[in-house]
Amino acid sequence: MDFTPLRTALADVVAIPVTPYDATGAVDRTTYRALLRRLLDGGVRAVTPNGNTGEFYALTLEERRLCTELSVEEAGGRAAVLVGVGQDVATAVDAARHAQEAGAQMVMVHQPVHPYVSQDGWVDYHREIAEAVPELGVVPYLRNPMIEGAALAGLGEACPNVIGVKYAVPDAARFAAFARDAGLDRFVWVAGLAELYAPSYWAVGATGFTSGLVNVAPKVSLDMLGALRAGDYAAAMKVWEQIRPFEDLRAARQSANNVTVVKEALAALDLCRRDVRPPSRLLPEPQRAEVAELIQGWAL
């Protein structure tokens, strides 16, 4: 398999779409499609349905399948579709196979939520999923600082379709070492903590970054990407300074309002309802006004 086109797609802004709900609390198919079209029309070329900003853990299996199918249909070849899969191995494998059947090109494997994760067990978990879909690109979502680069190197040797890593440990120095221990050129390194971490991670090896903010302002995220690709860190940091208050709201209290703030901004733009599912919760009125004020003046 030639995974070059998929590697190229990962070295970009990897959008994590929100999952909008209708007045009954069900997934709003029409709005989901409209939000995806807005991303695609804005220049996004990689989307991850069923990511954390998409409330993966709050969706039913049927809803995740629906989001996968809607994303592939709406992308229509305009963007690579990287489907979030996870939970127990059998569930993750079933979801990966469904993603392949639906026409997706890649899967992102969510961090294992089991309380007891050994390093070898982490490799075994991802290997079972990757071997079940050898024609799909596979991207581990790595949030565990205890996993070492050598473990990923071994996984990559066993599974050629493990082509990239969404690295989300908040430590740029650790990322730099991990990437080099695993194989800097072997994998596509995606900064998994979005725009606030993108410049520092880019400086030491990342070539793409994930984004939830891109749902609100595709141009802002793509402007940062352009600056980073040009090596213009001053320009990238101007974007960083612009979005920092918004991203700080999302990151507060261990990212309790990560999704809520994005949906609130979309609601302020009349693009979708602000509803989220437990364990997330709506913002109180003062913070709603703050979000609406923060996005004023952005290139929307």
Tell me what you see in this structure.
With 300 residues, the protein is of the alpha/beta class. The chain has one domain: Aldolase class I (TIM Barrel), CATH 3.20.20. Helices cover 49% and strands 11% of the residues. The protein has twelve helices and eight strands. It has helices spanning 4-10, 29-41, 61-75, 89-102, 119-132, 149-158, 172-182, 198-203, 218-229, 233-255, 258-268, 285-294; strands spanning 13-15, 46-47, 80-85, 106-109, 137-142, 164-167, 188-191, 208-211. The protein has an eight-stranded parallel β-sheet. Strand 7, helix 8 and strand 8 form a beta-alpha-beta unit. Helix 6 packs parallel to helix 7. The N and C termini lie far apart (39 Å).
Summary, kept brief:
The protein has 12 helices and 8 strands.
Helix amount: 40-55%
* Fourth CATH level, the homologous superfamily: Aldolase class I
Quantity of strands, as a count: 8
Strand order of the largest sheet: 1-8-7-6-5-4-3-2
The whole-angstrom Rg is 18 Å
Number of helices: 12
Give the averaged pLDDT, no decimals: 96
At CATH level 3, the topology is: TIM Barrel
Task: Categorize the overall geometry.
Answer: globular
Q: Please give the CATH architecture.
A: Alpha-Beta Barrel
How many structurally independent domains? Answer: 1
Order of helices and strands: HEHEHEHEHEHEHEHEHHHH
Termini gap? 39 Å
| Major sheet summary line | 8 strands, parallel
Low-confidence segments: none
Structural class: alpha/beta
CATH class: Alpha Beta
Portion of residues in beta strands equals 5-15%
